[in-house]
Every structure is written in structure tokens, then in C-alpha cells.
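pasting for ref
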Amino acid sequence: MASPALSQASTAFESDVPQIQDDQKPVRRVPFQRAKEAATSQDVLLFLIAFRTLNALSIRTFFQPDEYYQSLEPAWEIAFGANGGAWITWEWKNQLRSAIHPAMFAGAYWLCAQVSQLLQLSPTARDELFLSAPKVLQAVIAAWGDYYTWKLGERVYGRGSNEAWAALFLTVTSPWQWFCSTRTLSNCLETTLTVIALHQWPWHWTLDAVSGEKVDEHGLRSDRCSDQAEELAKCVPEKGETMERTHSVAYRLCRCLLLAALACVLRPTNILIWICLSCFTFWKSSASGKILKLPWTNGNLWIHVTSIAHGPATRRERLFLVLEAAICG
């Protein structure tokens, strides 16, 4: 039987075109399925930036003093000097904190001042611009965090998988994310850096080697497209993602460690995450037990033994991780 003619009114989601299977039964895909197939990474990122910008501009509440005294107030002093009227707390006066986070907002403040002077904005418009700039900047940071949460889900469960889309749905609809992710806290920037670094982490080094697995020019096992159950079609890069797929494991690990080091500079406790991941790479534990009958009683004694051995990562991979951590971190 010939296929039905395509309707001129059909959309990019093929809403007017029934799908014909071998049994000739027309099947219509649900709208979410059509949207999921049509969406590209660029579409998702642009949506998240717009969504988080609306999120940031609609938040009018106060959460923590750190929103101002650990970011915006030091940023104001960086941008306009010690006589700019910023309220600086004791830890900044004693140089106990990293200035990386406030420096981002200082750049936004400086740019706002130049734009206001160039356009000769009124004092009211100038104030609104200064209030909105840090929010928009933090919204972009939060959007990247949401985006790489989705990409991390795709790397773990496969491109276009329902689990990856569920991860994106949960982070977008989370009330806590709406309330907190766009605030000017160093924790929010730390979260985004950590998620991006986790996306770059060589997760396949924590898995046992497979016979015939490819090895790159550094002697490192190449990253598997995801798990063995992923369809071959999902391994094909999307438009605009070819370069990301062709990056070597060494390059991805270097980016991961640089981002992790930056997150640790912002908040030193972030190192606990990377200690745990490194332990999974270097070592693995196995447990065994045996029941012994006690001769003088009718009871039994359970002996539990836990042993630690080298992890699935090869000796070359462990050495490379140590060297890169020393260089990048």
C-alpha cells in the first residue's frame, strides 16, 4: 500500500502524519514524544536561559545574608572602589575568601555603569539595570547547571532516553531550584561547576574492561557511548555536537579537573565529592561471609570479611588521573 501523502499543514513535529508500521496500523505519537525527538541541545539551552531569567527576575524574597555580603557587596567594592559605599564584612577585610565569585558580578556592575553613562539613563532606569544585571548573570549560570544535568542524564542512560528527560523535568519543576538556584550565592555557582565537571568525568573507568575495547593514543580506554544497551542510532552526534563527541578522554578529564579545582577554590568542601569519585576509580571493595557453628552452643557465628583491591581502572588510567590532578588541581 502506498504511503499517505504528506499534509502541507504538517508541523515539524509531524502532528498530522500518522506513523505506518508493518501491520499497517496508523500510530500517532504523543506530543511529548514528538517534542522530545524534534528538540536539539541548542533549543533546550535557550529555553532554560529564558526560563531561569524569568525565574530570577520574578524572585523578590530574601533568603540569606550571603546573597549580598558574600557576593554583591564585595563585587560593588571591586567595581567602584573602597569609597563606593559597599558594606564589607570582616572575612573580606582579612582576605579569607576567594574573590572569583564577586569578580563576576563586579564585571556586570562595571558594564552597567558604562551602558548607563553611554545611554544617559535616568537614575530610576540606572537603578533597575544595576538590580537586574546580577540576577540575569546568575540565571545564565543556573541554566547551564540545568542543561548539564540533562546532558549528564543522557551520558548515563543514553541520548534521548526517558530518564535523561525526566532529570531535566525534575530540575526545571523543582520548587527548591526555583527558589534558590538563581540567587547570588557561591553555592549556586559551585553546583553548576560540579555538574559540568561530573559530565566530563570518565565514568567508564569505574567499570570493568571489556574485551576489544578501544584505547586512545594515551593508552586510556575510550569512552563508551553510554551503556551497552544504548541503540546505535543514539550514538550519532546531534547537529552542533560533533566536536564534543570527538574530544579525547584526556581532554575531557582535563576540563573536569579544572572545573573541579575551581569549585574547590569557591568552596573547599567540594573536594569531598572528588575524593569519593577517585576512590571508586582507584579501589573497589568486595565482601564475603561464612557461617561457623559454635561447638559449645547451638548457635551460629557469622563472619563478614571486606577486602579492598585495585579498582577497574587500569594502571595507566590511575597514573594519568594522578598526574592530571596534580597539574590541573
